[in-house]
Amino acid sequence: MQVDELQTPALLVERSALRANLDTMSAALPGERLRPHVKAHKCTSLARWQRDNGHPGFTCATIREAEVMARAGLGGDLLLANEVLDARRIGKLIAEGARVTVAVDSRETIAAAAAGGVSEVLIDVNVGLPRCGCPPEKAGELAELARRSGLEVRGVMGYEGHLMLVQSAEDRARMTREAMALLTGAAAQVGGEVISAGGTGTYLANTCATEIQAGSYALMDTAYGELGLPFEQALWLLGTIISVSGGDSGTYAVVDVGLKALGMDHGPPAIPGAQVWFCSDEHTTFAPGALDIRVGDRIRLAPAHVDPTVALHEAMYLVDGDTVAERWPVDMRGW
Ligand code: PLP
Ligand code: MN
């Protein structure tokens, strides 16, 4: 099948770019040094490529991601890097033979894990991102409570998400060291072997974590593209030009990919060689610049934020240039 035969909007993954991104990351962080985060792609076909690159463990953000991974035979060592109050679905997966470690940051989440049939946890520590995670000085106390509740504490996690898009590599590295000093302090109180942290923006700077939870590196987006990381844009939205107009403000064109097909929290998508004006529900309006754009043409847009973009689509198409190689269901989407 040719890319031109796909209905638009369609999510494309350029195979050579994906391959290069996975290999670059696996060379930097081989084996268990990387615990790929599946929230970025929500696709077990892609996760299999990551496993085949030597990474046995994965990070999940939702119970559903853990369920789909386990039932696809990828549940050998999953980390649910998130707090859950109803842990029974995780307990069920464990009873079926999966290994799932769950993040806890309170008495309530520890009680829920123990009651739900979870056996292994990480103490989630706040390292500066105001999201989940206990204060570093509370980590030891929570670890003790978890052990008293019959849970095995494998160590700590602490996601420095507020630092991922710091533009200067030097500042990012310094701030990561400061954030990770909080996590190593907590790890000393908690015990265990695991220090799980990091993402695409800090995968090299974070030398303190025993495993890095990066996800976006595989497909990439324009927000991460601005950091000059050694990863290529592999994810594209394919659209069809549905209107071209002239007028006082100059010629502009409209493509049938709007904000219902794009995660917009990091801004509008990019069209190489053109200037994007704005997105509305079903449209992106752009100035084509030197591009020769006609109604009916197909063009590619690079999303600004990979995770929420992928989650809007039922499938991604693995392509080699103009040829569709495979259709990969986004099978971990939904809740
Ligand atoms: N770990 C956690 C807990 C996250 O929420 C995220 C993304 O938001 C990541 C790791 C890493 O993601 P990325 O590689 O996309 O920066
Ligand atoms: Mn993201």
From TrEMBL:
Swiss-Prot/TrEMBL keywords: Lyase
GO-annotated biological processes: D-serine catabolic process
Domain D-serine dehydratase-like, chain residue ranges per copy: 234-320
One Gene Ontology molecular-function label: D-serine ammonia-lyase activity
A Pfam family recorded for this sequence: Ala_racemase_N
Family assignment from sequence similarity: Belongs to the DSD1 family.
Protein name per UniProt: Metal-activated pyridoxal enzyme
Species this chain originates from: Pseudonocardia bannensis
Taxonomy of the source species: Bacteria, Bacillati, Actinomycetota, Actinomycetes, Pseudonocardiales
